[in-house]
């Protein structure tokens, strides 16, 4: 059960009502999020107005390919233990269901991932598990694969994936199997 009160769906502001009603029949977590954010709807709407365009490069000058960002998001979802994030498929055109379901968690083992993708996922793991271990060697490895602009975007996206997923878990909004 959510650690915040969940507003009744009928009382939600338009943005949250659309989000709630547009969620799939089994997507309880999206409905939970919409209802919990009734206490501060502008916060979620403005956050998502940054998140989605930069995740997909939709109308923004993103430095990184959406596939790379989706692989990072999915790896962080596993590390965070966020069921909502792990179940979501935000870029099905560029990340196969097999990669999304299990492949991204085995990037270190090789497979069909590019050196850039492997480096991005390693950075995501480092940021999610031990960001204090980020050192000059880590930066050299990143700069071998990415421009400074790309590194900034990669770290910014990874940081917000980590934070949002952990917030969902802490507030118990990411439970996907218990209807309210």
Automatic annotation (TrEMBL):
Q: Which Pfam families match?
A: CMD
Q: Which residues form the Carboxymuconolactone decarboxylase-like domain?
A: 56-125
InterPro entries reported for this sequence? AhpD-like, CMD-like
Which residue spans traverse the membrane?
none
The record's section on Gene3D superfamilies has: AhpD-like (1.20.1290.10)
Q: What is this protein called?
A: Carboxymuconolactone decarboxylase family protein
Q: Top-down, what is the taxonomic lineage of the species of origin?
A: Bacteria, Pseudomonadati, Pseudomonadota, Alphaproteobacteria, Rhodospirillales
